[in-house]
Amino acid sequence: MQKGEWLYLYHDEQTYFLPYEPGGCFSTHYGTLHFPENLEFGDRIETNKGVAFYVLRPSLADLMMKVKRRTTIIYPKEAGIILLELGIESGSRVIEIGSGSGSLTVLLSRIVGSEGRVYSFERRPEHQEMAIANVKKFGKPERVEFILKDPVAEGGFGIEGVDAVFVDIPTPWVIVPQVWQALRPGGHVGFLSPNIEQVQTTVKRLEETGFVRIRTMEVWTRGIRVKEFLTRPFDRMIGHTGYLFFAQKVSSPAPEYGPEYWI
Amino acid sequence: MQKGEWLYLYHDEQTYFLPYEPGGCFSTHYGTLHFPENLEFGDRIETNKGVAFYVLRPSLADLMMKVKRRTTIIYPKEAGIILLELGIESGSRVIEIGSGSGSLTVLLSRIVGSEGRVYSFERRPEHQEMAIANVKKFGKPERVEFILKDPVAEGGFGIEGVDAVFVDIPTPWVIVPQVWQALRPGGHVGFLSPNIEQVQTTVKRLEETGFVRIRTMEVWTRGIRVKEFLTRPFDRMIGHTGYLFFAQKVSSPAPEYGPEYWI
Amino acid sequence: MQKGEWLYLYHDEQTYFLPYEPGGCFSTHYGTLHFPENLEFGDRIETNKGVAFYVLRPSLADLMMKVKRRTTIIYPKEAGIILLELGIESGSRVIEIGSGSGSLTVLLSRIVGSEGRVYSFERRPEHQEMAIANVKKFGKPERVEFILKDPVAEGGFGIEGVDAVFVDIPTPWVIVPQVWQALRPGGHVGFLSPNIEQVQTTVKRLEETGFVRIRTMEVWTRGIRVKEFLTRPFDRMIGHTGYLFFAQKVSSPAPEYGPEYWI
Amino acid sequence: MQKGEWLYLYHDEQTYFLPYEPGGCFSTHYGTLHFPENLEFGDRIETNKGVAFYVLRPSLADLMMKVKRRTTIIYPKEAGIILLELGIESGSRVIEIGSGSGSLTVLLSRIVGSEGRVYSFERRPEHQEMAIANVKKFGKPERVEFILKDPVAEGGFGIEGVDAVFVDIPTPWVIVPQVWQALRPGGHVGFLSPNIEQVQTTVKRLEETGFVRIRTMEVWTRGIRVKEFLTRPFDRMIGHTGYLFFAQKVSSPAPEYGPEYWI
């Protein structure tokens, strides 16, 4: 492992997330850990009280969840669907608005690869700062352009022909024309909104503006404990984060079209 | 658009998925479509009966769902989580077993980028053939190595140090040692199994073999129709495709550890 | 068993629901069954082709699901919650509108007992006829008063002091004042509506009219196949039937109150 | 209202549950309430600080949730389904084991009416005491026989021909023969168990013992906040309380039968 690489310290009842400091030490509720010079992922180390911890590689989901937050973040359960429905892959050019705390930016920067590009828009400087810091820690900042701008008030995104746009702002309907302008023909837009009225209002605007194949969904995950004779789902789960909805840009509006059936 | 490029023909009540044939024609229930020489994504074309269709870019989810099938395929709702939990990004080296119909292979080949690599194992030649055909149509075949082999019977994968392994076979527990061998330290393994007994058996084997942070989950999505005064979730949804479970390789077994809490 | 009693004929792959006819016979895909004079619940009888059927008592859920239908019916998953949230028990006096096909009427008539009473309102004669026929077959018709009337157009229910009212009509908001009039103080009202706009509109009206403790919910059930090494939830489930919402009558309106938190 | 009657004090952010004491007073975070001699349900009363509370009738769901607890209780979402699948109505004779804290006993005693009967078995005296106290407060104790006994160790229930049995004990499989003995032919048994292994073990025993139409399910509810431009499901929900499973007694075992399909 290299100095500064992020590691996920795993003990059954407790986990920690920190950068590797060769020769450093770290205090836990279970005693103090000393990190050797040649620590490797997968290693098992013990505290001075004899409690074992494992040194694990964080997953993409871990990185997204560990960003420092000023705002609600995008969760992995939604982020996975967003990638697939927006067609974001190695080489994609993507706009995101707003940057928020940068949890989705971290993911996007790792998916689009060295040939892709993420344009992350935010109008509040303090959010942008935090997003930049998080992408520097957990993402690939060289693939991201952070732009401090309100595209509604300030004449649009100023970028054209992107493959996909993802919108997570409180009034998503106001930005629909700017999204249409920025997308390449047939391109994908996605939204995440907590309230149904946000969806209702934005869907109507999408239909009027030149988007088709509008579809809305919810995503749930439920954890399950697998243990001999105690196998059962966990008692509590997240019942709602937001409604996800998607559409595709067409050359001319199609107000006669309704939303697509979706299973 | 280029000849042979896949397009998603969209009409409210009907969609078609086909490669672009400049000057060609295509018959639908709503009449015949003629494709001009200079068709572009986003275009609106009409059948000889005056019914409008839109020419859309398929998303990654579309490509996965449109593979020809001999087997159950991996659905987008699970595939998104798989990427994030296994940490599959641009540049990753990934093993998948089995190839099945290649729906996940299509996705992986588009995510790992030109510097990544997918090793897709399958022991049944007829499945492999179909997976190869599907990746040629919808994926990036130059990034995939298709291997016809049963790693359990034939001495393991023969590849080491991969970032992640995804297992979708009927008896996932038998392949746990081979997966351990193939992964780099701290690397991620994921499974999708329809029956709880498959999970119970495999989790036990993982605990004995040198994996920690074992976690199991289900994923659901539900579509919602958004239409003025008729907004409501769709009546039917998929209640189960399979249990997703994940773990990470460590240098030494940790049988004393239980599965992690997950929300 | 008595002549005319309803029985549930159960064979693994096929079930039938019919009244008992001593000495009668019944043709199935698996051959013909002859019913002896002294048939009892729990008996096992065989067709002339040697296929075994079991003679079972229908549950309340069976009776509700077996009504002849002209309309969407209330399903057991919602009906159970309705009883508990409306406080419908032995001795209760309850209004239901509309009668629909009578599936809920069947249930209510069996719950309220000989000292309770169900007032079932319907404005379409053909629905009322079917509801009456279904309650005669599966319920306790002597406890139900069927009333052909539109309480909105025709001056209210004409009944006062009932314990609970259940509303299942397309425009539930129009009937809120009449419901308030019919309920005893502190009494419960429940609604089932498929579309969110119906809920939004009716909740607003409830707040203005003198109802508090307004709460809205969805209910899901998912079946699970339990079979050795094949235990798994069923693939498909009902994703939505309707939103259930409840409130309680107070003496004076409380527009300042918002809806209650509910887990 | 009569002295001692239970009332549900409702204020938007806070609720209380207590018996009515004419002339008494009650202190809340919002000040002190004085109860007049002639308090009625639906009344609005104010604390000395001017905060309004409404006096509401508790629903059956409220009564179940408000029992004092030593054990996990049965929740309304499951209790409703239990009534319908077991066919418990006015006049039913029902066995319940164990009494637990009596939340289900409260409900059953109110549903079976004056002609029905609940036999509530419990082997731990301290649980029985609490169940009795709760039924006295919230149920109809004159319809319930509380029996302190372990029917497995002590020769069965000693009661025969009941319409339905509900089992909520940690090892439900051990009591299957006793349940068979107690039920009338074609009668219904239901179980609630948190762990899948309990279900797997008990279903096997049911198949061997003379039960058919075995079916297993989960139930979820999710609350929704309905408020102008803020309408959305609540963030958190209960992901699991237990698996519900049901079967019917037949005269002879039917090991060849698998579990029924259920949607």
Would you kindly provide a written description of the structure presented here, covering whatever features stand out?
With 263 residues, chain A is α/β, with parallel strands linked by helices. Chain A folds into two domains: 6-58, Vcp-like ATPase, Chain A, domain 2, CATH 3.10.330; 61-249, Vaccinia Virus protein VP39 (Rossmann fold), CATH 3.40.50.150. The first copy, chain A, has helices spanning 60-65, 76-86, 103-111, 125-138, 176-182, 196-209; strands at 6-11, 14-19, 25-28, 31-34, 44-46, 52-56, 93-97, 117-122, 144-148, 162-167, 183-193, 211-225, 232-233, 236-238, 243-249. In chain A, the strands form three sheets. Chain A has an eight-stranded mixed sheet, with helices on both faces. In chain A, a hairpin with a 6-residue loop joins strand 12 and strand 13. The longest helix of chain A has 14 residues, at 125-138. The radius of gyration of chain A is 21 Å and the shape is globular. Residues 254-263 of chain A have low confidence and may be disordered. The interface between C and D is large, with 89 and 89 residues. Strand 14 of chain A pairs antiparallel with strand 14 of chain D.
